[in-house]
Write a structure and sequence with these properties.
mainly alpha, 4 helices, Four Helix Bundle (Hemerythrin (Met), subunit A), binds fe (ii) ion
């Protein structure tokens, strides 16, 4: 299954987009490996990378929400936690048995989550961060 980042997912914040592209690529690689029944260890290390990169990305977004006092940070962070839990559950399911049903579940839960989270919460955060940034730029210009 080809999973590609599209321009429509852009939040307008360069580092968010860069990290989202990486997440899309890695999730795509995981789905591809699962679909074509690659070596178990390879799939396992793809899961591992996705888990650690997700945590790194979520931490970056959460730090930016804290720094700017973003009002939606609680709900946003809760969604991140939900994803981390889902990903860990899917990974342990994979450790038990790699089945077609699991592949479909990964596709449905993770891909849907990504697309919907980026399209809603991350885009709102991106718009807020861009507005904050332009305020600071305005202050610098006015000085
Ligand atoms: Fe997010
Ligand atoms: Fe994000």
């Amino acid at each position: 299954m080809a999973l590609k980042w599209k321009e429509q997912y852009s939040t307008g914040v360069w580092w968010q987009d860069k990290q989202h592209r990486e997440l899309f690529d890695r999730l795509g690689m995981l789905l591809d490996a699962m679909e074509h029944s690659r070596i178990r260890e390879d799939i396992s290390s793809l899961f591992e990378y996705l888990e650690s990169y997700t945590i790194r990305h979520f931490s970056a977004e959460e730090a930016s929400m804290e720094r700017t006092g973003y009002s939606g940070r609680r709900a946003h962070t809760a969604e991140h936690r939900r994803f981390v839990t889902e990903l860990a559950a899917l990974r342990s399911e994979f450790d038990e048995a790699a089945t077609l049903a699991l592949l479909i579940k990964v596709q449905r839960q993770l891909v849907d989550w990504f697309v919907s989270h980026i399209g809603n919460m991350d885009k709102s955060l991106g718009a807020f961060l861009r507005a904050e940034e332009s305020k600071h730029e305005a202050v610098v210009v006015n000085c």
